[in-house]
User: Which sequence fits this backbone?
């Protein structure tokens, strides 16, 4: 199957409205970035290009974009210790995770004794080809180091990295059943 949607979030953005660490806000696309640039020029060890995202910073005295021009950021915004952020422009589920492949297989053989009694032997194989399916990468922008004045990523850290699998290794089980 195709990969699961990746929801890119920025739990420290949108603090003007929801407070910090709300988990509901989204980052911005970096200037000139799109979904296609997020899936091209990917650094080694990452699933998507983390540098195409940025925190939506609002400096003191600037209009707050999500207010439709009716509110101006207060005097504490833009200071290094205060993250004054707005809602980002990255939509929900803009990327897809890695493809998932799984093949299960079972073999059953019945050995009849009489018309109503039989012995059943069963062998079941889960993930027959032992294919590794990777989970979605880390999609929270807070896994990266971000410049508090510009909102740009300084170091991507684990943001965009895959650090787990989504399935088990090959499992085999045998069963014998007496039907009567």
Assistant:
């Amino acid at each position: 199957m195709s990969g699961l949607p990746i929801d890119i979030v920025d739990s420290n953005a949108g603090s003007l409205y929801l407070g910090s660490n709300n988990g509901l806000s989204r980052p911005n696309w970096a200037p000139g970035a799109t979904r296609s640039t997020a899936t091209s020029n990917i650094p080694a060890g990452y699933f998507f290009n983390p540098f195409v995202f940025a925190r939506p910073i609002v400096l003191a005295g600037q209009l707050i974009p999500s207010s439709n021009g009716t509110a101006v950021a207060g005097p504490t915004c833009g200071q290094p210790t205060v993250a004054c952020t707005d809602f980002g422009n990255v939509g929900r589920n803009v990327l897809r995770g890695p493809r998932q492949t799984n093949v299960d297989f079972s073999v059953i053989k019945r050995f009849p004794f009489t018309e109503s009694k039989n012995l059943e032997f069963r062998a079941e194989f889960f993930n027959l080809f032992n294919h590794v399916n990777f989970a979605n990468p880390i999609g929270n922008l807070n896994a990266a180091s971000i410049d508090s004045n510009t909102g740009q990523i300084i170091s991507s850290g684990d943001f965009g990295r895959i650090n787990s699998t989504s399935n088990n290794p090959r499992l085999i089980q045998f069963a014998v059943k007496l039907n009567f």
In short: Strands lie at 5-6, 28-29, 53-54, 95-96, 105-112, 118-126, 145-146, 153-155, 171-179. The longest helix spans residues 15-18.
